[in-house]
Amino acid sequence: MSQNPNLFLSVGKQVKDEYGRAVGKVASFSMTPSGKFDAVFVEFNSGRFSKQPIEQLKFNGAEVTFISTTKSQASVLCDQIPLIWRKDQALKDLSEKKKISAEMYQEIHNSFNGIINQLKKDAQILSEEIADQTACCEEEIKAMSYAILNLELEHEIGKIDEESYKSAFTMLQESLKRATAEKTELEQAKNKLSNIMLGDSLAPTQKTKTSVEFPMETKAELPEPPVVVYVKEVGKAGI
After folding, report:
1. 62: nearest Cα among 12, 27, 135
2. pTM greater than the 0.70 cutoff
3. Same domain for 125 and 62
4. 177-213 residue pLDDT tens
5. Quick one: residue 181, left, alpha or beta (phi over 0 = left, psi -120 to 50 = alpha)?
6. Quick one: 59 and 128 in the same domain?
């Protein structure tokens, strides 16, 4: 990112995640001897201080956004794994065309295999982390759905006044939208990782002598997560 001295104006400003949730505040910056911004010290809402790489935060005027490490890691893996496959296949083609020695081919092929195996382990670990985060989103969505239902019931029988109802309803709906958006993006990231791993299992049968292509990920649209909520337009609910 560009090194902007005005980043110091972000000290004390609120940090939000990509879905608009407040997660903490900017406490300070770390700089290299040459004067470049290197990291950001963030005080999270839990009270914990943490040093975050400057790339993990996006600065847009007074707005500071914390970028999801999960999605960025998934994106990197989805780029790296197919790239190594393609290089390994191109190496095999060169060997079959007698452009490199068998010894050189085996040495580099073994190196590529080692990299692929490590990337696959990283992808599996990340996939499990995404599954855990998705489960948390599902629990949050379920809890908010029940909260909206109970809010509607209490409002219908006159136990909650109109002003309080509107405020609570808006808050819950916005939270529900954020949780649903996060769940959808997590599922998309996990789906991309799964497609990459599936491509790995199919690759030996799909490669030809002259091909350097790798199996492309399926680009099917993921369905919207099933959220059943009784929604009433604010201001038109009667007792």
Report:
1. 12
2. no
3. no
4. 999 999 999 999 999 999 888 765 444 444 433 333 4
5. alpha
6. no
